[in-house]
Amino acid sequence: MADKIKGMKRLSFQIAAVAFVVMFMANLSALIDHFHHPEIPYFDYEHLIIGGITALMIVLLSVGVILYMRRLENAVEELKKSEETIQKERDKAQLYLDIAGIILVAIDANQKVKLINKKGCEILGYCEEDIIGKSWFDIFIPEKSREDVKNVFVKIMKGETEAAGYYENSVVTRNGEERLIAWHNSLIKDDEGNITGTLSSGEDITGRKQAEEFVKNILESVDEGFIVIDPEYRILSANKSYLNMVDIPAENVIGKHCYEISHHIYKPCCEEGQDCPVKDTFKTGNPHTALHTHYDKEGNPVFVEIKSYPVKNESGEIVSAIEVITNITEKKKLEDQLRHSQKLEAIGTFAGGIAHDFNNILTAIIGYGNLLQMKMEADEPLRAYVDPILISAERAASLTHSLLAFSRKQIMSTRPVNLNEIVGVVKKLIVRLIGEDIEVKILLSEDALTVMADPGQIEQVLINLATNARDAMEGGGVLTIITKPVELDNNFIMAHNYGKKGKYAFVSVTDTGTGMDERTKEKIFDPFFTTKEVGKGTGLGLAIVYGIIKQHNGYINVYSEQGQGTTFNIYLPLTRKAEVKETKLAEIASSMDGAETVLLAEDEGEVRQITKTVLEKFGYKVIEAVDGEDAVNKFMENRDKIELLIFDVIMPKKTGKEAYEEIKKIRPDIRALFTSGYPVEIAGNKGPFEEGINFVPKPVSPTGLLKKVREILDKKRVDSIP
Predict the structure, then answer these.
(1) 491-519, pLDDT tens digit by residue?
(2) For the residues 39-54, what does the mean pLDDT come to?
(3) Is the separation of the CB atoms in 171 and 124 below 8 Å?
(4) Nearest CA to 558 among 568, 544, 548?
């Protein structure tokens, strides 16, 4: 308001001044004429007209001048205000430029810097005045890439090429450090559309690139597969481990659907009824896990565990998912093997658990049956009933021994033997066993293959495998047995998931029969599993083979394809040759009779009675004891008479071992024979199974018992010879 009043006062003064000038000029003309021509009146009609016209012209001119000055004054005022506004906007724009977290730089057609913001100065390490007007490429671009970058800029200025919307290149700072900048570029043009320069914004990505490279190196070094998947299930990136899993080059993976590459299908996994963690992650925004079966380039199954994690933008939207893929194929194999081993171990434990009671029962049956048989004449009619009883009892005992063989708990009599000799011995039996329509090829190693083994059990292994091969070649074929020395290394152990490094005797048994499928191979060593018709097999043959080889600290595996035959490979640890100790005993007495006094300790009444009866039948004097403590007491009463102890290993009050150790303090030279219905590993926990101790497993036939007793007593007699 004050400015308006001030303006009106100024205008009134100007009008008054003009009126004064008009009046003055009109009177001045009349005065001049009157001074030169006195005769002319001071005021007349002519002077009045001239003065009026002059005054009017002066008034119009003055008004025009006043209006012009007024307009000029307003224009100046507006210009001043515009400049202030422009300055404010310029300051505001500069503020925006300076607070921006990116570099802003404008370069003209002469490659000079026309504009740079505070961030650009900070990164480059220069003040603004040290940058503006300087050559951008000659000062701020590293020498190694200077010419290439400059040539591209020249082509852009000439319109020969378009400016890249996104470009990465390094700049060099004042201290000589190189920083990697991600540029977004645009062209500056004049009103006529001519290119006059470029305006670029740049982000310092040096730290990010270093971090990405660090993460990339980590991802490339881990065993897990990493892939990044977009919402359309397309693979955006993949590490080396994943590429190795699928065995496909990177150029054939990136951009493809994950289900195409991993599963060899052409629709999402979720549409095939599988759990899809990526789908769940996109849906919920949370990590998810699933087990999948992938396939390599050859179509082989690869079992994997998949974990997916969301990748979100600044707005919290899920833009992609990271899939972490762990190959659990070997783990699954180990778990399957562990379950199989645990199953077999459980069966073996069960077999061992029932062996004691079952063998005690069989001991009584076989003992009394043999006694009956001994009292009968050859033409005795009742012999027709006794003989089948004994045959059935022997079959039951054989079955028990087979189960214990499978469970690796039977007694072994190992010694250094040449595997080639065992194969040579059993060859004739195999030829007779399998028939004339099957050709037998034996290819033995030229080197001696000395192993610590029970020859009888290894023979049983070969016979069982040959029998199994015969049944697989009903129409004839070829059975090949090969022996050779081999060395198991880390590659073998990694490939088979078992084994111990070292030198082994290798024997393979190969047939040209019907072969087996995968399901059959998985169960081939299970007891009572058989592919034969009912009544044609017990299913224990290969289970016994497995148990014997394992008890010899060896390994066995099977390779087979339907219609292509089967190969069993056996690995037994090689040992150094050992000399067989000569015995002073020229020969073992063929007679089973005796007159010595025996202390018999057995807590099972029926077993004790039959054992006593058998011994007394052949001339031995028997002193009975019902447990370990009773055995010690009976020995103290008859210490000078007793020549042999026959002790059950596991008895009440005192075990057989405890009783033996106590008696041995009194008579260090006393000989002992231990028996048990338990397998050796169970009995050995409470029994004296160190070197030189005699042991017979139950059930034992009267003949077997008498021969063992006679052997021990005769050896004692021979050892006493000076």
Answers:
(1) 777 766 677 888 999 999 998 888 877 77
(2) 60
(3) yes
(4) 568
- Give dist(CA 717, CA 719) in Å, integer: 6
Q: What is the DSSP letter of 628?
A: H
Cβ contacts of 643 within 8 Å, gap of 6 or more: 596, 597, 598, 671, 713, 716
CA distances 481 to 71, 422, 432, Å, are: 122, 12, 16
- Tell me the domains of the chain and their CATH numbers: 2-94 (no CATH), 101-208 (3.30.450.20), 222-327 (3.30.450.20), 415-573 (3.30.565.10), 597-719 (3.40.50.2300)
Single-letter code of the amino acid located at 347: I
pLDDT tens for each residue of 212-249: 677 667 666 677 888 888 888 888 888 888 888 787 88
Q: Write down the pLDDT at residue 599.
A: 92
Backbone angles phi, psi at 42, to 5 degrees: -60, -40
Q: What are φ and ψ of residue 198, in 5° steps?
A: -130, 150
Q: How far is CA 331 from CA 252, 304, 337, 338, 558, in A?
A: 29, 10, 10, 10, 20
- The pTM assigned to this predicted structure is 0.38
Q: Report which secondary-structure segment, H or E, holds 293.
A: strand 288-295
- DSSP label at 272? G
Spatial neighbors of 537 by CB under 8 A, at least 6 apart, are 471, 530
Segment 350-358 mean pLDDT: 63
CA distances from 636 to 378, 601, 616, 633, 688 (A): 45, 14, 22, 5, 21
Whether the CB-CB separation of 177 and 207 falls below 8 Å is answered with no
DSSP summary character for residue 257: B
Predicted pLDDT at 538 = 40
Provide the phi-psi class of 535: left if phi over 0, else alpha when psi is between -120 and 50, else beta: left
> What CA–CA distance (Å, rounded) separates 675 from 601?
10
